[in-house]
Amino acid sequence: MSIFPADVANSNATPVTDPIIRQQVEDLLIDYVHAVDDFELDRWPNFFTEDGIYQIIPRESYDQNLPLGILFCDGRGMMVDRILALETANIFEPHTNSHITGRPKLSQNDDDTINARSNFNITRTMQDGRMEIYATGKYIDVITLAGDKPLFQDRRVVLESRRVDILLVYPL
Amino acid sequence: MVLADASELSEPFSWPGSGVTRVPFRLFSDPEIYALEQQRIFRGRVWNYLCLEIDIPNPGDFKTTFIGETPIVVIRDENGDINALVNRCAHKGALVCLQERGNKAKNGMTCVYHSWTYDLRGQLKGIAFRNGIKGKGGMPDDFDPAKHRMQRINVEIYCGLVFGSFADDMPSMEDYLGEKLSWMVKRNFDRPLKPLGVHSQIIHNNWKLYAENVRDSYHATLLHTFYVTFKVNRMDMDGGIVMGDDKWHHISYAKRHELDETDEYDKAGVHAAQYESKLSGPELLKAWDEFPDGITHCIQTVFPNLTFHYTLNSLCVRFFVPRGVDETELFWIYLGYEDDTEEQTRMRVVQGNLTGTAGLVSLEDGCINEFVQRGTHMSADKEAFLEMGGRDAESSGNSRATEAAIRGFWEGYCGIMGFR
């Protein structure tokens, strides 16, 4: 898979008119953020296809088409490693994330994959109770409906700010 | 707060008699010492990292940055020369360039407050209403634009990196680094560079705690357990520390062992095969032999607030900017080379996962220095104990169990701060 995001804006995508497809996609988007917020992190790689892409990248780099962001996983293997690392190797101060996401804009590609763009806002709460906006931005997704359930083929998490407070350890 | 020298601190400061094996915690939280550092170090006799030459390739291109907390604009003029200026209008002192990047080739730089306009070298060209309006007001007759300009900073371009200094009698970068260290900068940067991406992180600690952290080879495998957890069998554990003559800067490196040249190894020069691991996504460590010296991991520091890393093939400028006595912004500026193949770029991008604000190997550095800040901020009269690897600050063949490079930093720091 390419290290660069799919060029969703220039594709020949058509609007999604089937309400069932919209429902399926919205369920995926919501299920995903609840899983990561609720520390069901073992489920995280399974939201993606086997060779799915996940990237967190600042808007500045995304807009300039620069390939290197903050985190990049190519395939479930790298995602599994991420989760195992944060659960067993990485050291950080305990905190929780809470996502608020907006309604997605959808379009359908010739190969029946769905493009979805939605906004998010993530509040981080530290163990001492300190709460702040940790990240805000947009998800740029390509979702496949080919299997039993919809899966992310490509999920780019585009952060408005290139500046992250302290560190980034949980998937967003 | 501007302080002339250490004797003007409201509470006198002198270094403990036992030298740089002890570091008073006061240095990390005293706002007066922080203010003195701005003057003695950042505005003093050092070379400060400003930007990359490729950040401003064309005439008129500018990039804003900081020397310590002082706002700076770096701008390329019509002749192709790079100028560094304090980003401050000669009139009222407002910022002149407001964007982080842009181009001023067309009209020069204009302060938005009262339209004072400067050329690309920072010389004042004109001001609004100089002759008043309808004969009233205006500047006095003896006003001379030639006598006003944005404050100029000395510049040296070294291996595609732009450095600046408030001092006008600095040695060249080559001499500043010394030949024991300059070769590694040339190795990594002295060819056309390609930007791959930039991000930054806020770390809630004094800038010197990060300067220590990047010189601290003792903590590497103790705090950062990624390699151990994933049983990454690194074949590159030969290494050492090279200190510069004045101890300000250093290199810490690891080398791959000499291996028998197997067919596979010959074929691509890709040495993922050298890393056995429990990784589900082993592509993470896919790398190729880029330099004949066999150095696969290298951290290089340049006093006061610059670090380079070259790990596997990941090349990065780490620039940490003080944002207050207990806050620092750490920039991760990832680079490749212009002639990289697509596959090489891809390997550099994937290896980017090891470092940065979400770095699998190093993300702990985002919080560990804050833990020191929080642990020490009410203990100004206590001190850190740094005797691992001896009491000196000499080069060493043992890259792990030593704090020599940290002691070196403090030797340099004491000297420039006048704390000896």
Folded structure, characterized:
The complex is a heterodimer of chains A (172) and B (420). The longest helix of chain A has 19 residues, at 19-37. Chain A has 172 residues and is α+β, with helices and mostly antiparallel strands. Chain A has helices spanning 19-37, 59-63, 76-88; strands spanning 14-15, 48-58, 71-74, 95-101, 105-108, 114-126, 131-144, 151-159, 163-165. In chain A, β6 and β7 (131-144) form a beta hairpin. With 420 residues, chain B is α+β, with helices and mostly antiparallel strands. Chain B has ten helices and 19 strands. Chain B has helices at 31-42, 173-177, 179-189, 207-213, 220-223, 226-229, 263-268, 342-351, 365-376, 404-417, and strands at residues 22-24, 48-52, 61-67, 70-76, 82-86, 101-103, 109-110, 117-118, 124-126, 152-158, 161-165, 193-203, 238-243, 250-255, 295-302, 306-311, 314-322, 328-337, 383-385. Chain B has a seven-stranded antiparallel β-sheet, with no helix packed on it. In chain B, β16 (306-311) and β17 (314-322) form a beta hairpin. Chain B is globular and about 80 Å long. The model of chain B has no long low-confidence stretch (mean pLDDT 92). Chain A binds chain B through residues 3, 56-58, 60-61, 66-82, 84-85, 88-93, 162-169, and chain B through 195-204, 223, 225-226, 228-230, 279-284, 329, 334, 345-346, 348-350, 352-353, 356-358, 360, 363-364, 366-368, 370.
